[in-house]
Structures are given as C-alpha cells and as structure tokens.
Amino acid sequence: MAAGAAGPGPGSGPGDSPEGPEAEAPERRRKAHGMLKLYYGLSEGETAGRPPGSDPLDPTDLNGAHFDPEVYLDKLRRECPLAQLMDSETDMVRQIRALDSDMQTLVYENYNKFISATDTIRKMKNDFRKMEDEMDRLATNMAVITDFSARISATLQDRHERITKLAGVHALLRKLQFLFELPSCLTKCVELGAYGQAVRYQGRARAVLQQYQHLPSFRAIQDDCQVITARLAQQLRQRFREGGSGAPEQAECVELLLALGEPAEELCAEFLEHARGRLEAELRSLEAELGPSPPAPDVLEFTDHGGSGFVGGLCQVASAYQELFAAQGPAGAEKLAAFARELGGRYFALVERRLAQEQGSGDNSLLVRALDRFHRRLRAPGALLAAAGLAEAATEIVERVARERLGHHLQGLRAAFLGCLTDVRQALAAPRLAGKEGPGLAELLANVASSILSHIKASLAAVHLFTAKEVSFSNKPYFRGEFCSQGVREGLIVGFIRSMCQTAQSFCDSPGEKGGATPPALLLLLSRLCLDYETATISYILTLTDEQFLVQDQSPVTPVSTLCAEARETARRLLTHYVKVQGLVISQMLRKSVETRDWLSTLEPRNVRAVMKRVVEDTTAIDVQVGLLYEEGVRKAQSSDSSKRTFSVYSSSRQQGRYAPSYTPSAPMDTNLLSNIQKLFSERIDVFSPVEFNKVSVLTGIIKISLKTLLECVRLRTFGRFGLQQVQVDCHFLQLYLWRFVADEELVHLLLDEVVASAALRCPDPVPMEPSVVEVICERG
C-alpha cells in the first residue's frame, strides 16, 4: 500500500524491469525537477524539507533528488515493524492529500494570472513579428539614404571648395568695408551720443589698424580714427567733469575713457574728486537737519536719510572704483580706503551728534531701531572697504551708545529712588500738618519696594532691546559678553543697589548735617527696606537679570552674598542711627527738665512731673512705630513684682537698710566711697551696644540712652530734700512703665537705682520719701 502511494506511476513495482518506458519516466521527471531547481537558483543539495545534515545522494530521502522508492520500501520492510509501517502509510497519505490540496489552491488562485500570461505571450509573438518587418524596411531605407548621400557628396565636392573660398573672401571684404567705413561710423556715433558704441568700434579696429599702419590706405583710416577718438575723449571728459549725472553715468564715462587709453592715474583722482563732491553734499544735508532752526527729524528718519543718501552713495562709489581701477593694485585700494575713512569719519560724527540728542529720552525702542538700521546699512561698505574700518567704527558707536544708555537708566533708577524718599517724607509730614491719620509705615514700605522693583524691571526690559535676536548687532562679542555682565549686571543693577545703600547711609550723618533733618520714621523704613533686600530682593533681582541676559563673559562679577552683606550693614547702621536719634529726642527732654529746675528750693512732691509722662508717651509711640516693621524679639523672664518696686535713696534696698539709720549730714561715712564700692559689684551697662533687628532691641537701646542721659544730668546738679524725693517719685513712675519695653527689666532697675543714688549723693539732707507714699503719688499721676 505504501509502495502504491509513493511510486512514480501505475504499474511500477519491485518486480518491474528498469529497462522500458516505465523506467524512463522517473528519469524524465528528475531531469525536469533539476531544470526547475536550476531556474529558481537552488543548489543541488538545497531541497525543501531535507534535514541540513542528511546526505543529498541518499536514495531513501523522500525530499532528495536521488530518491528511489524500491530502496525506500525495502528499508522500511527490513527496519520497521508492522505498526510503524501502518503509521508511515497513514502519514504519507495525509501528506499526499495535503500536497494535492495545495496544488489545487495554487492553480485556483493563479488561474487568472495564467490566462493573462498566455494572452500576453500570444500578443508578444504578433508584435515581435510586425516589429521585425518594420526593422527590415528601416534597414533597406537607410541603405538607400546612405547611397544617395555618397553620390551627392561626390558630385558637390568641387563646388564646396569653391564656396568655402568665396565665403572667406566675403568675410574679408566685410572687414575691409568696416574699416573703410569706420571714420564715418565713429563720427555718426559721436553726433548721436552713442559713445559706448563708438568705443566698441574703435576697440574692434584698433589691432588691425595698428598691424597694417605701414600701408597708406590703412594709415589714412587710422589717422582719421585718432582725430575722431580724440574728439570723443574730449566730450567724455567734459561730460564727466560737469558732474550733473549720477554715479553710474560717471562710472560709464570713466570706463569709456579707460577703454580709449586715457591715463588711469589721472582718471582715478578725478573720479574720487567728483565722488567727494556728491558725498559732501549729502553730509551737508544731514548737518542741516541738526541745525537749531528747523525741527530735527526723529533719529530713525535721520539714520534712514543718512543710510540711503551717504552710505548708499559711498557703496556705489566703492563698487564702481573697484571695477574700474582694479589694475591699480594695492596703491589704488589704499586711496579708496583713505577716501572712505575720511568721509566716513565725518558721517559718524554727525550720527553721534544726533544720537546724543536722544540720551534724555526714556524710550529705547526707537533708538535701538535706528541703531539697527545704521549698523545694517554699513555692512555693505564695510565688506567692500575692509581696510577703511567702517564696520568696526559703526560697532564702536553702537557700543558707546549702549553704555551711555546704561548710565542713563542708572541715573533714572537713582532719581526714582530719591523720588520715592521724597514721597515718603511728604506722606510722613502731611498727617501732622493736616492733623489726621496718614498711611502706615508698612504701607509706605510696600509702596517704595514695589515702585523701585517696577523701575528696575522697566530698565531691564529697556536695555534688553539691545540683545534682541532681530537686532543686527546683538551677535557682536560685546553684546554677548561685556554688555550683559559688566554693563547690565554690574553697572546697572549692582551699581544701583550700592547707590541705594550709599544714599541710605548718607542719612546716618551727624545731627548737624543731613541726618538732623531726617525723620526718624524714614530711617526706620529705610533700614527695613535694606533688610528686605538682603533677605530676598537682591537674590531675586540678580536671578532675573541673569535669566534675561545670558552671560557669556568670564569676567568676575559681584557675588550675591557680598551685596547682601552690604545691604545688611546698611540696615544695621540705619537702625542704630534711628536708636540714637530717638534716644537723643527723649534725652533732650530729660536734660532740659533737669537743668531748668531749682532742685534746692523745690516743694514737697505731690505728683509726677509732666516730662516723665511725656517720656512714657513717646516711648509707647516709638514702640508702636517700630512694631509696624519689626518683630517683637526675645525678652528675659520678668519677675512678678516689676511694677511694684519702689526706689530708696540708695541704689538697693539692702544698702538702705544697712546705712540709712546711722546716716546724718555730719556722719563720718563717706557716701562717695559707698557709691564706688557699689559700682565695683554692679554689672557694667553698655549704652551703645549693637542693635538687633527686632523691636525689643530697638526700644532697649533708646531707653538706655535716655536713662543714661538722665543719670549724667543728675550728677551735675545739687538737690534739696524735696528735690531728692521728686527724683524718687519720677524714677518710680518711669520704672512702672519702661520695664515692659526692654529685653531685661534689671537694666531699667539698675539705671534708675543709679539715678536715685546719684541724687542722694548730691543732696545735703537725703531724707527719702516713704515707699507707700511714692506708690500713691505715682498711681494718682
């Protein structure tokens, strides 16, 4: 059964003879199979389905080219049991059915292609048959044409040679006719003004006439042409010297004169002289626009006029000169460069004069546009006349104007800052004059900070126009490096911040100078403004500047930390000066209250003096004022009896209990010695200690200055009994209210103790008032 399925055809079996038609059929199929493999490019051993390591000559390989079914069946019968033979048969039948199915599918899918291919082959046979007939006819016709051409060439050979000779004679006669008619043609061209045509005629005949001038006829023609040419050259020179025509016409005249053989050196000098006249007229026109009588046009119109008039004319002159006098070499180029350098310098001077008139304006957009056009216009002459340095000079002018604009904006920022300070002064003074409540310090501080920041941003936006991508000079090294780093960052922003700090520090002068007229509230506001700059504003402004102006310069710049340190130092100096000024105001009240009173004849105290109440009121007002801008600060723990302590004659209650009972005016105890012993053991008070940035530190400094002044004034006076008691009452009143303003209440106690003790030392009859009486008077006051 397996042999029937795998055999090459019906009737083939193991007993058939290999000789006969049946044996030749497999051989024919193998040969056809080999031709197909050859057609599809398969090698002998490359058969589908064969394992890669099998022998291509194995007769038992079903997929091999040398497969022998008899050998395959013998091998299966010898080696395989019956079950495996049955399985092989089943597998082979399945494969045969699959191959039949695939073959049918292939035929069905490609049936239309097979039909189309058959029709195409049939048409190709017919078309190729017709094409072969047409090619045969074409070959016959080409042979006939070749025969006719050969016979015609043989017939016309002699005539062709004669025609060639006659054509040469005709051309020679035409040349001779041109030469004999040349004088009349030149005369006619000169009369009609066709100077270019006349010069071309002369150039065509010059070499021939020069070669055959030994012949009389040609000599006569040459003489006539020379006379006409001389007259032509004279007319061209006259036209050139009149100068009424433009630069292209004059360049044409020079070109024709050079073609006529005129000396180039002379023509070069005359050409530059005539060009100078035209360009100087343009310069005079520009200078007239700068005059005082007519209103000067805006800077953009001025640069447009100069660019189209002078710069355009200079470009025409330069290009024409280089075309006409290229044979002059380096000497001619140097003449042109010197010519352009001289007139260009005069043009640049006029441009700078006009640009100087724009320095007062606050808008940069029109100025930058004008500078952009000015710089663009000079690119062409800069490329034509590299030796003259026009482009470099134009760039220097633009850089100089940019630096001046930076200085202008710096002055504007300074003026804006001073204007803000003036507004603050007026706002602080107006409520007092009108008798009503004005804006608070916090609101004034916010207004000043926002106004200054807006002015800084506006200045940055204005100078950023110089580095815009559409501006022609923005890619220059200066505007990519030094302008951004040293100009904008250092010169404008850092310069303004330092100027602001210096202006603020100028208010810290001595009271006899500017500082005496400075409102203390302004000092406080400026100190907070500088502190805010140190905290955040400086970093923000410099970051904004670095982002807008990408610095490509490696020059050293001021670190943010340095500027912050300067701003913090300015804030510290202002706050310290504020403490001194406010302390001085209260000290003046206390000093006058002590110096203007007769302490020996004072009556028995019945109430607290009004100046002490005023001191407490002013201190409270200062506390409120400082609290608007600064935080509270840190205080030491306060005792529960701070407001109930009363003052004795001596500086402490222990000393009073120890020495008062035995004290009489004639007692031998030296009270100065007691005071000095007390000072040895008391804590030293630094009146002008550094002030911290908080309300408690500020008030502590003011109160220390005030009480120290009171102490020194008391030491210079002599007190009676009631005078001493009045001092005792006043100090107790101050102690009741001032201790809550300072960081350490012991500081107030020590200073007031010293005041009462000093008064007792200066009293001949030191009899203190009872503490209960003092408390009653102070509570009533």
UniProtKB/TrEMBL annotation:
Compartments reported by the entry: Golgi apparatus, trans-Golgi network; Recycling endosome
Membrane-spanning intervals of the chain: none
GO cellular component: cytosol; EARP complex; GARP complex; membrane
Protein keywords: Coiled coil, Endosome, Golgi apparatus, Lipid transport, Protein transport, Transport
Pfam family, one: VPS51_Exo84_N
InterPro entries listed in its UniProt record: Cullin_repeat-like_dom_sf (IPR016159), Vps51 (IPR014812)
SUPFAM superfamilies: Cullin repeat-like
Superkingdom: Eukaryota
GO biological process: endocytic recycling; Golgi organization; Golgi vesicle transport; lipid transport; lysosomal transport; protein transport; retrograde transport, endosome to Golgi
UniProt-annotated stretches for the region Disordered: 1-66
Chief location category: Golgi
Skewed-composition ranges (Gly residues): 1-14
PANTHER family for the chain: VACUOLAR PROTEIN SORTING-ASSOCIATED PROTEIN 51 HOMOLOG (PTHR15954:SF4)
Family named by the database record: Belongs to the VPS51 family.
Role played: Involved in retrograde transport from early and late endosomes to the late Golgi. The GARP complex is required for the maintenance of protein retrieval from endosomes to the TGN, acid hydrolase sorting, lysosome function, endosomal cholesterol traffic and autophagy. Acts as component of the EARP complex that is involved in endocytic recycling.
Quaternary structure (record): Component of the Golgi-associated retrograde protein (GARP) complex. Component of the endosome-associated retrograde protein (EARP) complex.
Name the UniProt record assigns to this protein: Vacuolar protein sorting-associated protein 51 homolog
